[in-house]
Amino acid sequence: MKFIRKLGAWTLLYTDRMGVMGVFLGKAFFYAVIPPLKMLRVLKQIRFIGFQSMVVILLTGCFSGMVLGFQGFYSLSRFGSDAFLGPMVGLALIKELGPVITALMVTGRAGSAITAEIGIMRISEQIDALELMGLNPYRYLVVPNLVAAVISLPLLSAVFDVVGIYGGYLTGGKLLGVGAGVYFGEMANYVEMADVLEGLYKSLSFGIIIAWVCCYKGFYTSIFTGFGAEGVSKATTQAVVMSSVLVLIWDYFMTSLLFG
Amino acid sequence: MIEIREVYKSFDGNEVLRGVNLSIRKGEVVALIGGSGEGKSVLLKHIAGLMRPDRGRVVVDGKDLEGLKGRALIELRSRLGFLFQGGALFDSLTVFENVAFPLKEKTRLSDDVIRERVLKELENVGLSGAEYKYPSQISGGMVKRAALARALVSEPEIMLFDEPTTGLDPVIGLSILQLIDTLHRRLSFTGVIVTHEIPRVFDIVDRVAMLRSGVVFAEGLPEDFVDSHDPVVREFMEGTTCTTIKGRVGKAAGA
Predict the structure, then answer these.
(1) List of residues 6+ apart from A3 with CB closer than 8 A
(2) What CATH architecture applies to the domain B2-79+157-254?
(3) How far apart are the first and last CA of chain A?
(4) For residues B224 and B175, what is the distance between their CA atoms, to the nearest angstrom?
């Protein structure tokens, strides 16, 4: 009986929180499409989420591609198909690894910082101060991050793909001997526009997930995770874990339902 | 101007406000006193519309906050200033940018006019020269002054002060109270000051309300509180003024 009561209370609590989260996203979309848009803040966040994540994306993209080049070559050469290294690396990066790893890197680098910043603003009453000035905190804190993430993620993902493809060529081509003509030629034969669009749609949706979860966790810091530095720290951890898990779950559903 | 009628509020089953009634007239400054955890700041946030009561009504200038949403709520809030306990300055902006923020975002004033008004307001609160410092680079007293300048730059009709002197040394605390008094004379706002600064706050307020056990336990002129024979009020007054009493005793003993 006690177990059922606990289960009921847990269900009610999390249903309520999911509702709050859903309403939060709805409001963010609403204020994103209804002007005015705080363009300066959007540009600032594009710089933070996009431009300042470039080094991380270049490094991870390059090494992911290089690993794919090695692994792909050794696996494919077992079947005498090492000529297909280019398409394999290209498809894996463009359809899957590019959007997903970019999303995970941005979550760790920028998402956590967004949650911490908004969380600190919440516990130090800066969000209350905004509201009391008659200003909408969604327009100042949530919408710029949402718009910036939706713009930045596909671009970062594209950079990741390009760098990864060259990384794959560096190991598979330069080190292991697959010719540039074969590597890039076969890639051009097998990678289609639909594959590029699949990656684009995925990174767009990952941008929404990251901005949504990270802003939400910061916005409700004192309510759901407690007060003070501990509350912010919990909110930041939860934001990173939740964003990463949601990105992977959503990736599965997108792949299986939309592109399966 | 402000009517609080039978307001109840609880958090996780803990009832903080249990039917608070209080009326504040236009242009009047009321001190809200009481022990820690009695719900003074909670009541102040209800007046600002930052919290909604479980039961009861908060009416500001004839408008019930319960039914107020969207544009109407924004309009009411633009007539209201709030000095937060910790200042709540935006820590990524300088003092100047903080004070200019409400004017830049809510008015169509030119940059020159905004600059003039901000510098004037900073001069009024004694912060000339600290315009380009960040909140983390100035003292607690200066943060409170900057927050006061930001709250007052829009010339609000109602000012709510949440423990404006907490955490400050007695001299700076007194200067903040004097500043509030000076600004009230200049702007004639209706004010509510949540404070433990007793009896010093009595010099600048028109009335005092004491919260205890979730209700307004006592209400009256500052003199009524000083001369009160009610044991609870006396205990609170003597508890908060023991430094002064000891000082007097010490002087008498020395003499």
Answers:
(1) none
(2) 3-Layer(aba) Sandwich (3.40)
(3) 44
(4) 25
Q: Where are the domains of chain B?
A: 2-79+157-254, 92-155
- The DSSP result for B106-123, as a single string, is H----HHHHHHHHHHHHH
User: Cα separation of A217 and A238, whole Å?
Assistant: 7
Complex ipTM value: 0.84
Per-residue pLDDT of A14-28, as tens digits, reads 999 999 999 999 999
Distance CA B180, CA A80 (A): 84
Closest listed residue to residue A49, CA positions, set A196, A173, A151, A171: A151
What is the phi/psi pair of residue A160, to 5°? Answer: -60, -45
* Planar angle of CA B142, B206, B240, nearest 5 degrees: 65
**Would you call the peptide bond into A144 cis, given omega within 30 degrees of 0 as the criterion?**
no
CB–CB of A221/A125 below 8 Å?
no
Q: Rounded to a whole number, what is the distance in Å from the CA of B53 to chain A's nearest CA?
A: 17
Total residues found in chain A within this entry: 260
B105 vs A: CB within 8 A:
yes
Answer whether residue A258 shows pLDDT above 80: no
- C-alpha A9/C-alpha A198 separation (Å) is 40
Using an 8 Å CB-CB cutoff, list chain B residues near A128: 45, 50, 82, 84, 88
SS3 at position B24: strand
Tell me the average pLDDT across B123-142.
92
Q: Are B88 and A128 inside 8 Å of each other by CB? A: yes
Q: Any chain A CB within 8 A of the CB of B101?
A: yes
For residues A97 and A229, the model is more confident at: A97
